[in-house]
Amino acid sequence: MQTVDAAGLEIGDDSPPRIMGVLNVSKESPYSPSVFDDAGEAAEYVDDALVGEGADIVDVGLESANKRFEVLSAEEELDRLDTAVEAMESVSGDAVFSIETRYHEVADEALSRGFDMVNDICGFADPEMPVVCEDHDAAVAKMASPPDLERPGAVKEVDDIYDALARNGFTDKTIVDPAFGGWSEAKTLEDDRETFRRLREFRGYGRPVLVSINRKNFLREVAGRDTEDALPVSLAATSMAVERGAHVIRTHDVAETRDAALIGKEFARRRTRRTRSGASNADVDGGDVSVEELDVTTPREAERHLDRLGVDAPASVAEESVVRVFELDGLADGDVRTLAAAAGDAGATFARGTTEPGAAGHDVLLLGTPRALRETATVAEGESDALRSALDSVKRAVF
């Protein structure tokens, strides 16, 4: 996983989760506590409610990207930039300032006037955007979007989101954002939930991941909460997002989100990582070869890393990257013998538990790669109706 340096702020696996607070100088923005048209009041808000509460990055929006509003032109965004720059210059706290825009002209002007990074909500639909960011040596968050400057974020399917993030390439300092929320009528709440379930896949680019899930509808619906009462569901999802590998959390609720993100980081899987300089979280002596244990829990996640490395491999290679474990309870003697033999032939592991006197059948553990489990189930399914039904459940789970 690449570490991105955003004006001295390191973003990556070896850094704490970074909190991106939000400041809007757009009268259209729906979240009124973060909206200002007076630079002094905006700066006070940043100092007190964002930087003062733990924000590492302040993301400044010049317009609302809500699908209900007309899109501003680059010239109209530039007209609002003075207020954003004045507010930034009036802030006393220390933070990285990000400009949210889809236009390279606005990004260029903002970076020239003191902004540190760019949050591109159209995912390099403007092909000059990566050029501008590279010229300024600036970090850029790239949100999944169609190649359309008029309407960002209408990507629905997770595989399409993944491909959209790759469109027009990456800079050396790109952070990827899979784009949660109601950016278009086409995207449903279940689409967002599926994207969240598969969040680890976006680590397959080998670049830091940003998520913007603060009080979003796809979380609120689960608990039946309106926006005002949705903070708890946002915090639960924040911990889960960081545990699944997210590095930047964009939020209006800075202090609470910071705490939730730190909990997610603390209880995330411990992965071995050694750089070529020899620094390691596993206390391994230095050397010329870097080592990184990838966060892979499904074959699909493994496929993303194979694609990143340009490996043209059969699907079975990705399937060998994970192991699934099933407990089968109540097996008859003949089923146990059949399953044990089939598992041995297929390369799965079979373990039978101790049977209590008078117990109705045997308890076993069956574990292996998806391929090994499918082969085991196919070979063993003919012994009895009970075993066939049980193994049908296993096969459905690993397909």
Automatic annotation (TrEMBL):
InterPro entries xrefs: DHP_synth-like, Dihydropteroate_synth-like_sf, Pterin-binding_dom
Gene3D superfamilies cross-referenced by the UniProt entry: Dihydropteroate synthase-like
Organism (species): Halogeometricum luteum
Protein name: Dihydropteroate synthase
Domain Pterin-binding, chain residue ranges per copy: 17-262
Residues spanning the membrane: none
Domain of life (superkingdom): Archaea
PANTHER family named among the record's database cross-references: FOLATE SYNTHESIS PROTEINS, FOLIC ACID SYNTHESIS PROTEIN FOL1
